[in-house]
Amino acid sequence: xxxxxxxxxxxxxxxYKRSLGPVIGAFMTGLRDRRILGARTADGRVxxxxxxxxxxxxxxxxxxxxxxxxGVIETVSHVAQPSPTDPVQVxxxxxxxxxxxxxxxxxxxxxxxxxxxxxxxxxxxRWRAERDGSLRDIEAFVP
Amino acid sequence: MSDSDHTHxxxxxxxxxxxxxxxxxxTAAAVTADFLRHILxxxxxxxxxxxxxxxxxxxxxxxxxxxxxxxxxxxxxHAGTIDTFSVVRIPFEGQVLEPPYVCARILIDGTDAPLLHxxxxxxxxxxxxxxxxxxxxxxxxxxxxxxxxxxxxxxxTP
Lengths: 143, 158
Hints:
The structure holds 2 protein chains of 2 kinds.
Chain A lengths: L6 E8 L2 E3 L1 H12 L3 E5 L5 E2 L16 E4 L2 E10 L12 E8 L6 E6 L10 E6 L10 E5 L1
Antiparallel strand pairs in A: 3-4, 3-5, 6-7, 6-9, 7-8, 9-10
Chain B lengths: L14 E3 L2 E8 L2 H11 L3 E5 L6 E2 L15 E5 L2 E10 L12 E8 L6 E5 L12 E6 L10 E6 L5
Antiparallel strand pairs in B: 3-4, 3-5, 6-7, 6-9, 7-8, 9-10
């Protein structure tokens, strides 16, 4: 008894909303206002994105510090053919970027081909016109 | 700020949206496919365990208690008894039915494991444990559990 397999589309989706707390909230508010904020740790480093606690020591962080909006690529992972859910629809790379004034690297999108993007390249943030306080307020970094 | 800037909001950002979405294509295995083809014919057909003789509806390929294969198909009734139920009064994202509505475990006549379904044509306050209910079939030829639209009090609304 060979019958065609019964298949069905099934979508599992959750419309999560996350509350941000004072420090990540300030970081997201900064993005909306076209500023990238880090937090200064007790030993004087600046961690980006700003976080309430220093992941190295567990100690509370102090002042918020504006960094970037330019920096240097530390590592790149190239995406030659973006999928529909990727943040941009041109060749790009996921990159760790050491923003000016920061002591940690920041993961974001850099537009450009595998030939164009490399470690050490200086890039700068391109802001979205419509911003709502999210990491996507930075459309991408560009050389 | 540049002329192309359209962001005028000034209140602090306190929340952000983090939606999660996974798109699946589910394929029914043989035993479930049998069940669904029967339900398309407006029949509820379960399977009996050869060791403990329990009838599972929906059918199971292997008895979870005895760990042996279940081959014998058993035609069950279209009515049963409410084993337990819950009144859903809270709206949530993606909800299909309008609250309040009743989800119930229904022990179909001739089976030994309850089926989870909806109870309709009755006010939620009127539903009781042990209540007799019967299947109301959907006219659409759906090879899914939604082929039974819901269960209603046996013989119509009391």
